[in-house]
Amino acid sequence: MSPGPSTIGRYKVLGTLGSGAMGTVYLAEDPLLKRSLAIKVVREGTGDAEVLARFKQEAEVSARLNHPNAVTVFDVGEESDLGPFLVMEYIEGERLSDRIQHAPLDPAEAVGFLLQAGEALVALHALGFVHRDIKPGNFMVGRDGRLKLMDFGIARSESVRLTSTSTFLGTPAYAAPEILNGASATMASDQWSFAMTAYEMLTGELPFLGDSVGATLYRIIHDEPVFPEELPAETKAVFRRAFDKDPARRPPDLRAFLQDLIQALPLEPSLKHGCLARIELLGTERAPGVMPLQPPSPKGRWMHSPWVWAGGLLAAGLLGWAAFFRRDASRVLSIDSRPGAAAVFLDGTPLGSTPLRQVVVKGKAELLRLEKPDYQTLEVRLQPEDSDLILRLQPAPFEVAVHTEPAGAQVFLDGEAKGRTPMSLAVPGSGAHQLRLTLEGHQPWSTVPERHKPLPDPVRLLKSPTRKPSSKEGPLGKFFKGIFHKEPRP
Questions:
Q1: Residue 204 lies inside a defined structural domain of this protein
Q2: Residue 15 pairs with which residues in a beta bridge?
Q3: 316 pLDDT more than 50
Q4: Cα–Cα distance, 51 to 470 (Å, whole number)
Q5: pTM of the prediction?
Q6: Residues 163, 253: one domain?
Q7: What domain count does the chain have?
Q8: Torsion from C-alpha of 359, 361, 366, 370, nearest 10 degrees
Q9: Is 160 exposed, middle or buried (0-12, 13-18, 19+ CB in 10 A)?
Q10: Of 194, 201, 388, 437, which is least packed with CB atoms within 10 Å of its CB?
Q11: What residues have CB less than 8 Å from 353, skipping those under 6 apart?
Q12: For 370-394, how does the pLDDT look when each residue is reduced to its tens digit (9 = 90+)?
């Protein structure tokens, strides 16, 4: 096996991130901008016209999408000894599929990721493209909690087919039944795959999974979904509609599916309200400069007239200014915590986990909430001058069960009497504290209680040793005995 390249274009190769049927992805560094990058290179021997067309399209779609929840493309090029390459942002984190491999996600965490995924997919559809391979493995979760959609190599415009064949290029387990029956991919089939991804995030399994690829395909096309018994009836109803064989009977769009799902999930009222408010804005705003792709007009070339383009730009500019003045002002926040990895909610809407860099806050956002296991929930009212926030979390109190044998021991915490065993003792989260147990006739017992470290159950108190009088007298004892001993009178 030949060693990998040391450079690709102007970029310095640092290592290999992964390799697949299409090619290899390298970790690289931009020597000019001093930032880490991921570079995808087509594998040697796969350079046929269709593969190269898909590679070129991935670069075009990624660059045009320009969305915070989609992988950004910085550069494209071609090396004589390697072939074409794609330079993308490097995301330090893990695939969503790895995150859910061992256990399903908590509903609140799952909803936070689904909202981000939905925003990326709606933006892609607004460009006129269908992804065709939505699945957990095509989402990256960064360390800051931001989720990003990637792999646009088989995406296609709804108006122009990439290939002349009907070859299926997606992942069978997540494909809609109409696709498996040979129909063209549509936004509705993307939404089926999105619902399948949501279901796996919440349950850790798939509703049509068979023992083989063939069995899985058959179940998707012919069978009804199989849900676990513990799944609430309301949630089953949402997914049963999303997995209808007829696309016309599914939710009309991604917004409707997410609204139904969030209403059915067991979420806190404030979180549910915030998520529903966020869904109302889903797809209503696009990143600056992003416009839907349209094929050239078959009726002539008048659309390419500079006067028409100038008028269009002027109209777009006026609409943009009008929209700006209709909305509340936005600002950018950076949010960090000590310790890190705290879940952040803004007016009930999940933003991700700390540290969060350059979060765009729109409108009159007020209440910032941070949550982390074993720490007290922190709520902060945002002030107009806030920009870079570093918030300190306080450890939450914890409970320890105190049982002794024999029972009835007096419990002292930092010298203060708390009651008698058996009992549940609340221990402050900050600092070290001394627990002392005393019982008459028994030796005292003490320790420093720790979170997640239970006490012995029970604590066995040892009896105090009893002192017995000595049967042997020493010289001094005999001396005093002789002094105080009185003989009886005759």
A1: yes
A2: 27
A3: no
A4: 99
A5: 0.58
A6: yes
A7: 4
A8: -20
A9: exposed
A10: 388
A11: 143, 144, 145, 340, 341, 342, 343, 344
A12: 999 999 999 999 888 888 899 999 9
361 and 265 within one domain: no
Token pair, residue 318, equals: 């006026």
Structure tokens at 124: 């892609």
Higher pLDDT, 441 or 294: 441
Q: pLDDT tens digits for 436-463?
A: 999 999 999 999 999 999 999 999 999 9
Quote the tokens at residue 125: 């559809």
Which residues are annotated as catalytic?
133
Strand bridging mode 404-405 / 388-392: unpaired
Say if residues 84 and 42 touch (Cβ distance below 8 Å): yes
Residue 151 domain boundaries: 93-280
Check which CATH number belongs to the domain holding 44 and give it: 3.30.200.20
The DSSP code sequence of 391-458 is: EEPPBPPEEEEE-EESS--EEEETTEEEEESSEEEEE-SSS---EEEE-TTB--EEE--BTTBPPPSS
CA dist., res. 378 & res. 109, Å (int) = 18
> Do 227 and 172 sit in the same domain of this protein?
yes
**Within a domain: 473:** no
Query: 134 and 14 in one domain?
Result: no
Question: Across the beta sheet with 11-19, what order do the strands follow?
Answer: 7-8, 11-19, 23-30, 35-42, 83-89, 73-79
Q: Do 129 and 167 lie in a common domain? A: yes
362-364-365-367 Cα dihedral, nearest 10 degrees = 180
